[in-house]
Design a protein that fits this description.
nine-stranded mixed β-sheet; about 30% helix; alpha/beta; Rossmann fold; about 210 residues; two-stranded antiparallel ribbon
């Protein structure tokens, strides 16, 4: 008998359809491909739904991904959806991984701040790994990069721990001290992501806050 697959809940971005005045929720096919390559069932989370928490509970995911695309504070329906989902997840022990915008949202949720950064759009660069992430990725790694906002060294929210830094000390990955909440500024679903991202997914699903 085939063992049941773990379920991966993915937030979506709001986009405009070409030729239509019709905002839509969308997600890159890269995410679907990554989920399937990891043996995970991808489940998409819509924006604008009255009660996204009820919807999430009905899906019964093993891991919540706050996906990338855009900046926090620029998309009210998505901001509301992800804020409610993150609040629920942190209160119920559901593992969370924030990707790029998702990491930024996590930092803001815990009272941190963001700042502008140059040279991080479509530009691979090295990072130094710290904390438990070094055991997965090694002491350093090269990552893809598609963001104009960063978490500065002095902008980390209370309760969060740096897990990777760029050459200027900006936060490129983080996790919570005790909750199963982590984030990476690079995109695991895109080319140029470290192979160790696969191990990160697996450990979050199976162990939650594996750094404790």
């Amino acid at each position: 008998m085939t063992p049941p697959q773990h379920r991966l809940a993915l937030t979506t971005r709001v986009t405009n359809a070409t030729g239509y005045d019709e905002p839509r929720d969308s997600i890159s096919h890269d995410w679907i491909g990554l989920a399937q390559s990891l043996g995970l069932v991808p489940l998409l989370l819509p924006n604008g739904i009255d009660d996204p928490v009820d919807y999430l509970e009905a899906l019964r995911p093993d891991l919540l991904i706050l996906t990338g695309g855009g900046d926090p504070g620029t998309d009210t329906p998505r901001d509301r959806t992800e804020s409610l989902l993150l609040e629920y997840a942190t209160g119920h022990g559901l593992p969370v991984l924030g990707v790029c915008r998702g990491l930024q949202a996590i930092n803001l949720h815990f009272g941190g701040r963001l700042s502008a950064v140059a040279g991080h759009v479509a530009a691979d660069h090295p990072v130094i790994l710290e904390s438990a992430f070094a055991a997965l990725y090694g002491a350093d790694a090269t990552v893809n990069s598609f963001h104009e906002l960063t978490v500065p060294a002095d902008g980390l929210g209370p309760g969060l721990v740096p897990a990777a830094l760029d050459g200027h000390g900006n936060i490129e990955a983080l996790h919570h001290k005790s909750l199963p909440v982590a984030g990476v500024m690079w995109h695991p679903e895109r080319p140029g992501a470290p192979a160790a991202d696969r191990a990160l997914f697996g450990r979050l699903i199976k162990e939650g806050a594996f750094w404790c």
